[in-house]
Design goal:
Blueprint (H helix, E strand, L loop, with lengths): L1 H21 L16 H7 L4 E5 L3 H17 L4 E6 L2 H10 L5 E4 L5 H11 L1 E7 L5 H9 L4 E6 L3 H9 L1 H8 L2 E6 L2 H10 L6 E3 L13 H5 L3 H4 L5 E8 L4 H14 L3 E7 L5 H10 L3 E4 H7 L7 E4 L6 H4 L5 E4 L12 H5 L3 E4 L7 H9 L3 E3 L3 H13 L1 H18 L2 H13 L1
Parallel strand pairs: 1-2, 1-4, 2-3, 4-5, 5-6, 6-7, 8-9, 8-12, 9-11, 10-11, 12-13, 13-14
Helix pairs in contact: 3-4, 3-20, 5-6, 12-18
Length: about 425
Amino acid sequence: MLFLYQIGLFFFALAYLPFFFLKKKHGPGWPSRFGWVPDGVSRSLGGGPVYWIHAVSVGEMALAVRLAAELKAKRPGSRVLLTATTVTGSAVARRLKSADDEFLFFPIDFTFCVRRFVAAIKPKALILMETEIWPSLLEELGRRNVPVFIANARISDRAWKRYRRFRSFFGRYLRYVKVIAAQDAQMAERFVAMGAEPQAVRVAGNMKFDWRPKPGSESEVEPLRSKLARPKDFLFIAGSTHEGEEEIFFRAFKAIRRLHPEFRMVVAPRHPERFASIEKKAVQESVSIKKVSQMTSSGYDGDAERIAVLDVMGVLGPLYRLADTVFIGGSFVPQGGHNPVEPAFFGKAVLFGPSMHNFREMAAQLTQSGAAIAVSDASCLEKTILQLIDDRERRRKLGEAAQALVRAHEGATARAAQWVVEAAG
């Protein structure tokens, strides 16, 4: 089965390779994808036991960085290697990681690549974030008796349908995993159904509840305060928006501004490179927009008739502290939403649309505890914002409930790190 998997992977890689280089998805340091580890990295990792943490998405990498800090706190003298498969994951890792941590691109899952990579870094343990099953790598680590862990483990509804069809294949490799720290009971059941050993699966909670702004982030966003709103203004932030959502907020802006001139809006697209298409939509909807980076650099002091579009990476989470109300993007289109913990941490009134399936349990906990409001459509969004503008007390109660929920669920990162240290040493 492993041989057939590698044959299929070979033909996929062969077809994808031209696109990979033409679209510049390889990034600096790409030789590590083929198992080559720079001598400098090998020497740096040679100073203590190496915990290798692999993450894919931007959000997962942020969790991986926090897990790295927990591991080093619990195992002083240890080293951490972070890996990712994408250039965006690489950028996040390099920006957030500690100076004494290392980063490399994840090796392609061919035996000769992973064998060379593993031999060079000599990991004490491998921690995979959320759902990562790489058969060749797991087989190689099993051969070397290197324990494997899955942290913040989850299988999305969409992925679950695929995994179930091939559970006999993936189940074979899940048996190499020492501990699977699942986000909740449903995720734990899915991993057991996939073939994981029941005694290896534990419910740790969702590590995304452990989000904290990085030290010094307040000073980064403070200069934006006067650019975005005056002290008596009502600031609404639509965070991590996707294609098809910006026009909803543009229309809401016009409708609400007619009744409340103090209403201000920031739209933060999930992918800032979409600014040109967002600008076209703004023209179509007869609204004026401006990049936040231009406001900062030009000394722009806030134009009530303009919507600010956030094009600065890494500041959205800390920026939520300035908001009165926040909408979670990706939930008015079938993207599954994004992490609502960041605005909840700052005690903000949180809104989201009907598509929150990637954060289903978290969204349910927020709404059931009176910590967030689910809005069904654009009309409901406008009505809810108008109500919140007029009702400061309701905003306060929503924010307090949100903060309380975050505090009640924190600690999953520390639990996962403790299980790794206990099992791997």
